[in-house]
Amino acid sequence: MTIAVVVADDQAVVRAGFRTILEVEPDMTVVGEAADGAQAVAAAQRLRPNLVLMDVRMPGVDGIAATRTLAASNPDIPVLIITTFDLDEYVFSALRAGAAGFLLKDTEPDDLVLAVRAVAAGDGLVSPRVTRRLIAEFASSSPAPPTSSTSVALTARERQTLLLVAEGLSNAEIAASLVVSPSTVKTHVGNVLAKIGARDRVQAVIWAYEHGIVRPGA
């Protein structure tokens, strides 16, 4: 399967750089580019890519608004946010709006490729380097969730798994930490997502911060 990507960034040189990195891979192709959020939405709806690589700050319609539009109208097209701003208060809003992942632009090319594959496969992803910093920062100021949603009964192992997911660990890393198989971790993660009503790992991380499973700043 070839992963079709739309790259949205207001700088042509950045778009060209991403295209170069991705198209070296035999299973990836950039099918479209966009210089702002409105163009990104239009390109995604026209080209039906497997993923949109979306900058946050763009003129006109920014990446957050574009992400929100795509999440509402085309939830089958995941958005991977990639930005220079590692403390951008808008990124948390973008994740809550439906982005499937978040990376910084100084991410190593190999890590970008892995992230694109993960998000295209349906696995939400947040860069481990910013998971604790950025999400904790803005989850601490987010409105309190409804009381009824805090009564989810997670087992001890599911809670432990969620804590490690919130630290940005992959399934393989969680398996090594808990001394279990990756398939067992995948089962635990699936059970957690089902119980808390989260679409992916990104939403699970946000839920963990909002509900006190992980304390902001910890």
UniProtKB/TrEMBL annotation:
- GO term, biological process aspect, one: regulation of DNA-templated transcription
Q: Which InterPro entries match?
A: CheY-like_superfamily, NreC/VraR/RcsB-like_REC, Sig_transdc_resp-reg_C-effctor, Sig_transdc_resp-reg_receiver, Tscrpt_reg_LuxR_C, WalR-like
Instruction: Please name the Pfam families in this protein's record.
Output: GerE (PF00196), Response_reg (PF00072)
Recorded protein name is Two component transcriptional regulator, LuxR family
Q: Which residues carry this modification: 4-aspartylphosphate?
A: 55
Molecular function terms in GO for this entry?
A: DNA binding
Q: What are the entry keywords?
A: DNA-binding, Phosphoprotein, Transcription, Transcription regulation
Q: Which segments constitute the HTH luxR-type domain?
A: 147-212
Stored PANTHER family: TRANSCRIPTIONAL REGULATORY PROTEIN NARL-RELATED, TWO-COMPONENT RESPONSE REGULATOR
Q: Which PROSITE patterns match?
A: HTH_LUXR_1, HTH_LUXR_2, RESPONSE_REGULATORY
Q: Does the keyword Phosphoprotein apply?
A: yes
The Response regulatory domain is annotated at 4-120
What positions belong to coiled-coil segments? none
